[in-house]
Amino acid sequence: MDSTKYSLKDFYDIPGKDIMEKAAVFSEYSEDVKRRHHYQYRRVSLTGSGPTMEVIDTYTGKAREMIYMASNDYLNLTKHPRVIEAGKRALEKYGAGAGSVPLLGGTLDIHCELEKAVAEFKGCKDAIIYTSGFGSNCNTLLAMLGKSDIAILDQYVHASIVDGCSRTNVRFFRHNNLEALEKLLVKFENEYVTKLVVVDGVYSMDGDIAPLDRIVELAHSHGAYVMVDEAHATGVIGENGRGTPEHFHIEGKVDIVAGTFSKGLGAVGGFIAANPELIEYLRFYSRGYMFSTAMTPQVAGSLREGLKVIVDEPERRKRLWDNINYFRNNLKTLGFNLGNSQTAIFPLIIGDDMKVKEICRRLDEMDIYVNPVFYPAVSRNLARIRISLMSEHTREHLDKVLNALEYLGKEYDII
Fold first, then answer.
1. Beta strand pairing status for 384-388 and 371-373?
2. Residues forming the active site
3. What angle do CA 276, 279, 281 make, to 5 degrees?
4. d(CA 210, CA 177)
5. Which of 27, 32, 143, 306 could bridge 3 with an S-S bond, Cβ 3.0-4.6 Å?
6. pLDDT at 305
7. 243 in Cβ contact with 259 (< 8 Å)
8. In this structure, what DSSP letter does residue 5 have?
9. Please, which pLDDT band fits residue 243 given cuts at 50, 70 and 90?
């Protein structure tokens, strides 16, 4: 099979083939991708997240050090000594697991402390925690919205939000387009019981920020609630790293603040922060909370300490933004198309799937770890290389990547 003639979408639904037959055909495609050295997936790390990491080469099986430009660990809290020690203490005190689902016997005092800390950090009155960020979004929306309700979504919201709206009515508006949002709000103002506008605070593929203050004002004026997913905003934006509501000075005015613990907080899990009444409702009607064993004590301990580190060490966020500004200014000077990126996420928009694959292959050979993103994850004319920065990347790391991008950008005629 010639993998260059196909995309991932072609194997999702193959008429007349059952799941095992589809998997076999996809395996042929995957093998050809590997043969061309375009398989930039599941590269195995021996050292974990950091500005550099030791990676097993997919094709030689040998370990080599790479500059890691594909992590969401923006503040490098995964290896912060305080975060690690807090996790160890919780592990030693409570053991490896919680032992039960949180609604029954699995709630520990450390879980309650984390929920209280999250609510305070996000300017809300209460919070609920989940074992994954995807699960927190998906299960919360499944619990909240039914056939008589409507979810009005930015077209670029995370997949967990889209999946969570499978039981309700859904309409999408053009990305960050307030006029398009208002038209939908007006159209459906008197048609549904619950109207919920859902946006990302920072968008994971574009790195831009939702105009949350205006979205909240607009939604509330038409009787709709607002939910914001803070996955890529927590720890990164806002004067104290508290996210998009703080960035726009509207803390306490957003109805539902969602997020994951797996990005700026460097661990795993998810949360919903809102009013106490809604949080209590979710504890009984969110199936992912009711029927999934509670968060492990080690993770809860590490996360509790991670929130403290964000507050105690603002210099970490300052280093991140110094890196962001330096990297963006240089990429723009070189002539790369970064779209509307405003944060630590840099989409190098190329608009050609094959060029993206080839440049990522070459960068991998240069010991630079980035992610290719192409159709159907984005439209064909927006195929890109996704780069993300950390606070602990050095100027030497950034310069090496910039030099490589300049060289390849000229070779492949994209700058």
1. antiparallel
2. 204, 232, 263
3. 110
4. 9
5. 32
6. 98
7. yes
8. G
9. very high
Residue 11: pLDDT band (50, 70, 90) is very high
Q: What angle do CA 23, 29, 34 make, to 5 degrees?
A: 120
Each residue of 67-118: pLDDT tens digit?
A: 999 999 999 999 999 999 999 999 999 999 999 999 999 999 999 999 999 9
Tens of pLDDT along 343-359?
Answer: 999 999 999 999 999 99
Q: What is the DSSP string of 23-88?
A: HHHHHHHHHHHHHTT---S-PEESS-SSSEEEEE-TTT--EEEEEE---S-TT-GGG-HHHHHHHH
Tokens coding 183: 């038209």
Q: Domain 80-312, CATH 3.40.640.10 — does that match?
A: yes
Cβ neighbours of residue 342 under 8 Å, at least 6 residues apart? 202, 207, 208, 209
d(CA 331, CA 316): 23
Do the bridges between strand 270-274 and strand 256-260 make them parallel or antiparallel, or are there none, so unpaired?
Answer: antiparallel
User: Cα–Cα distance between 333 and 274 in angstroms, integer?
Assistant: 43
- Mean pLDDT along residues 43-51: 96
Spatial distance between the Cα atoms of 405 and 342, rounded to a whole number of angstroms: 20
**Residue extents of the structural domains in the chain:** 37-68+314-411, 80-312
DSSP 273: E
**DSSP state letter for 275:** -
Is residue 295 classed exposed, middle or buried when 0-12, 13-18 and 19+ CB atoms within 10 A define those classes? buried
pTM value is: 0.95
Quick count: other Cβ atoms within 10 Å of Cβ 105? 11
Query: Is the peptide bond preceding residue 51 cis, with omega within 30 degrees of 0?
Result: no
Q: With b meaning 16 or more CB within 10 Å and e meaning fewer, what string describes 298-317?
A: bbbbbbbbbbebbeebeebb
Coil, strand or helix at 286 = coil
Q: How far apart are the C-alpha atoms of 212 and 242, rounded to whole Å?
A: 14
State how beta strands 270-274 and 126-130 pair: antiparallel
User: Out of 3.10.180.10, 3.90.1150.10, 3.20.20.140, 3.40.190.10, which CATH number does the structure's domain 37-68+314-411 have?
Assistant: 3.90.1150.10
What sign for the dihedral angle of Cα 49, 266, 255, 164? positive
pLDDT of residue 308: 98
